[in-house]
Design a protein that fits this description.
The structure is a homodimer of 458-residue chains. Chain A is an alpha+beta fold. Chain A is built from 14 helices and 18 strands.
């Protein structure tokens, strides 16, 4: 680790952390229109630092909603080009009264930095920018490889603008690999690369029976009840063991390789501990014969998130609602085509719809699963860089969640991603008391420095 | 119809209608605390008229919520005693923008009086009071039979105070029969007595899985989903044909007599017309082999009214909620014991609850079905009175709904009810543009006059 960049980063840790705190003080909550100005302020803060550290062509790009940030430094001919991705928007902080210190007043406790966005994703965005600064300052104003940044402010609200932008600006974003810093370590001190994500098809079924809400006394026994219809339908989409019953649903599922499954078995994971501390239920569910990691990373699932309609206040109202809805999503695994799955799902729901009920289905979002190969130079360099920083072998994991932009990098830009994240499983993303473990912020900066230096040397 | 009372009623129709309009102008919405004063004003309006027409012991009785009204006139020794019941509170008027004229500005159109409460139940309450006035004025200040009034202001919010009051004041309410005016004619111009009501057990199941809301990407496939658990459970409570699957549920069901079923077949009812105009669905549902009237009046049913919990706003949120609920009710028929049914239901739900989920059940309301015999002098006199007014044979029907006070009159006071109502099926109870067909208001007054006169003569 005789890296001048790492040395620079170490000497500037306190300043880097102070800058991050300044960024965290801006409540850039992308979903709340009253915070639109704050979102813009956060973008301008980032733009200004990108300019200050020496990035070129720094641009704040207007979109239909929140601005994108582009920057590049492309003066390393013959060397690889990285596309650095992160986001500067954050989730709403509620419930506010569960925060120990206010969400937009960053506070240090036990080597952790507490604030909304600390780890998701401002802390990890700042890791990238500070790594670039360290590389730049320690290499006479040059970078060891070519670098582009594309940073968005809509990750927490669906990421429409970046999806649109990258379809229209493929050459502007041309790169050999993308560096995505929005994931986590599998366990504290365990260097981790995420090499697979599940896809998502998120739908809403609307069921309509009578023309108006009816009284269940007068009409119960004759009027069709859209809630009961949805219950009948959904009970037939998945069996009690978690197997999805949509015809053809599993046809294209590609299982992980034996080597990958073997590697997962070696990960430090204890099912009983996970059940008690992370889930907190009396039992876990899911398909028999598959481990928890297999089920959550590499098996498709179907969930119901909410069933709007009818009477939901306290007490009793004897209504047979004219209309009821169900938000139903499916997580997809590699090789399942979201369009194909949606079609099969839609046909099956229609087929299951009972007499007297009309169903219609809205597609709220759709994206494929994504796996990145591990035998390319980018993953190899990242693996080594993290091993050097953590002094432990890097593990490859998948995530059961979806990062749509990674699928877009893969499918639209044909650019593979390196998902190098430094969060921890208990960092409270999207929840009160979100935190970033401060040593991981510094390790992230150092890992990126070494990663890019290794790529230059390779 | 050489009745002096009827003559008096006819001469005073316009004034009676004018008084009713004054009562309708008071927005006595019992469920909204900001209308508590209006509810009281309506009660005082009624009290004042009861005094004016010559009723005795007129009392406004304070309760935990809205006042009860009591009055009596008991100077007809040897004659029967009637307990006249109605309610002076109304439902909220929303959605306001669907009213053609404002809900609390009574308006006449096409022989109908439009206002919130016109038929449910202020119009029918006023029918009773005006019949008593007509009888009193045309019989030298005397009534042909003994009369008590018990009038409530909480019918639309559960009727707790009257239930409590009648348990504690059985002798004060002692009567030979109750006259309940809160039902409807089976068809326009068809004199109708309601002789049966279904009971109700209204519950809410709460299902809990994980200790906190979880991300469906990270935890889908391992964390139990309380919505799916509820769907699994409820799908097994009733089959697709409407048959309830709770063990022992039908054991005590008492079917209507052959004569009653024969009489229902003679009623002017056209299933296709009912489907199109009242329900408006593409098909009706319910148990095969039973007619619509049988299914809605005399077969038990199970309905889902709402499923609070999870994510219900527009859009997509990938949450596996820690908790979800389902409001599930059962309509009961004669001889089914609500306590027994609730116990069977509760046990079955527990049995169906999948691993990893905890369910608990709240009982929101519970009451038995109720049938009144038709071969007593009260029903006979009512039948004849209505036949004379309408000049058609009176029909006996049941209602699929529940009027808990009727069950209480039966079970607590041991007093049979005569349910003589003058609403119409399209009167928009609980909906915008509630109306009362004005000729039916007058027929109601005349029917009650003749009914009581017949009882005196019998």
């Amino acid at each position: 680790m005789a890296s001048a960049a790492v040395s620079y980063a170490r000497q500037n840790q306190k300043r880097f952390l102070g800058e991050l705190k300044d960024l965290l003080r801006i409540p850039s909550i992308s979903t709340l229109p009253e915070h639109d100005n704050d979102v813009r302020k956060a973008a301008e803060f980032v733009v200004s630092d990108l300019r200050r550290i020496g990035m070129q062509n720094v641009q704040l790009i207007s979109t239909k909603r929140h601005p994108l940030i582009y920057a590049d430094w492309l003066k390393a001919p013959g060397r690889p080009t990285a596309l650095c991705y992160a986001h500067y928007d954050v989730q709403p902080p509620d419930p506010l009264d569960e925060w120990i210190t206010p969400p937009f007043e960053p506070a240090e406790r036990n080597d952790n930095l507490y604030a909304r966005g600390a780890v998701d994703d401002k802390g990890q965005l700042w890791m990238q920018i500070k790594a670039i600064e360290a590389l730049m300052k320690s290499h006479d104003g040059k970078l060891p490889i070519n670098v582009r940044f594309i940073i968005e402010g809509e990750e927490e609200v669906g990421g429409e603008s970046i999806a649109d932008f990258l379809r229209k600006n493929k050459s502007k974003l041309a790169a050999d690999f993308a560096l995505v810093c929005d994931t986590e370590l599998f366990a504290p001190d365990l260097p981790t690369l995420c090499v697979g994500l599940r896809g998502l098809v998120y739908t809403e079924i609307t069921a309509v029976g009578a023309k108006i809400d009816l009284h269940s006394g007068m009409y119960g026994g004759a009027a069709p009840n859209p809630f009961f219809a949805l219950i009948e339908i959904i009970s037939k989409l998945k069996d009690a063991k978690g197997r999805i019953l949509i015809p053809g649903f599993y046809k294209d599922v590609k299982a992980p390789t034996k080597a990958e499954l073997q590697a997962w078995k070696r990960l430090p994971f204890e099912e009983e501990h996970y059940r008690k501390t992370e889930v907190g239920s009396t039992a876990l569910t899911g398909e028999p014969g598959f481990s928890v990691l297999y089920r959550t990373w590499a098996r498709p699932t179907l969930e119901v998130h909410g069933m709007p309609g009818g009477f939901t206040a306290a007490g009793a109202k004897t209504v047979i609602p004219a209309k009821a809805c169900a938000k139903v999503s499916m997580r997809l695994v590699p090789n399942q085509d979201p369009d194909d799955i949606f079609k099969k799902y839609k046909n099956y729901v229609k087929k299951l719809t009972p007499a007297g009920i009309q169903t219609s289905i809205k597609l709220w979002s759709s994206g494929p699963a994504c796996v990145v190969g591990t035998d390319n130079r980018y993953i190899k360099a990242a693996t080594e860089a993290m091993r050097e920083v953590f002094k432990k072998d890097t593990v490859f994991i998948r995530s059961g969640g979806s990062i749509p932009v990674v699928a877009d990098f893969q499918n639209v830009l044909k650019t593979p991603s390196v998902m190098m994240g430094f969060g921890l499983p208990d960092d409270n993303l999207h929840a009160p008391n979100e935190k970033f473990h401060i040593p991981n912020f510094y390790r992230g900066i150092e890992s990126i420095c070494l990663f890019f230096e290794k790529l230059a040397a390779a």
